Amino acid sequence: MVDNCCYTSYFARMNVNLGTVFDKFIAQLLKTGMYQSQSEVVREGLRLLKEREELKNLRLSELRKEIAIGSEQADRGEFVDGVETFADIRRRSAKRKRAKG
User: What is the dihedral of CA 33, 37, 42, 47, to 10 degrees?
Assistant: First the structure.
């Protein structure tokens, strides 16, 4: 069992060295007036990182589900023609490249 009192107080203060590049970046953001403190900038960055990690985990979970479905289909002998499938992938890829210019 975690003692929340001690756990919270341990992390209440944290001294982090971000380096020159990030120090300057934070200073620039503070000058814009969009953020009121260094902590606010760091919290926003961590919020975005957390959001990205959650999205990555969601995508990974979905990929695992799709792999499981494919594995079950393969176990049942449900396959697609590889040559035809790769030809289709190449056609779609070429079409996307043409659309990009």
Answer: -70
Residue-wise pLDDT for 4-19, tens only, equals 555 556 566 788 899 9
Q: How far is CA 95 from the centre of its chain?
A: 28
Helix, strand, coil content of the chain in percent (nearest 5): 75, 0, 25
Structural domain count, the chain: 1
pLDDT at 80: 83
Indicate the pTM of the whole model: 0.61
Contact assessment for residue 35 and residue 41, using Cβ atoms and an 8 Å cutoff:
yes
Which domain range does residue 89 map to? 4-100
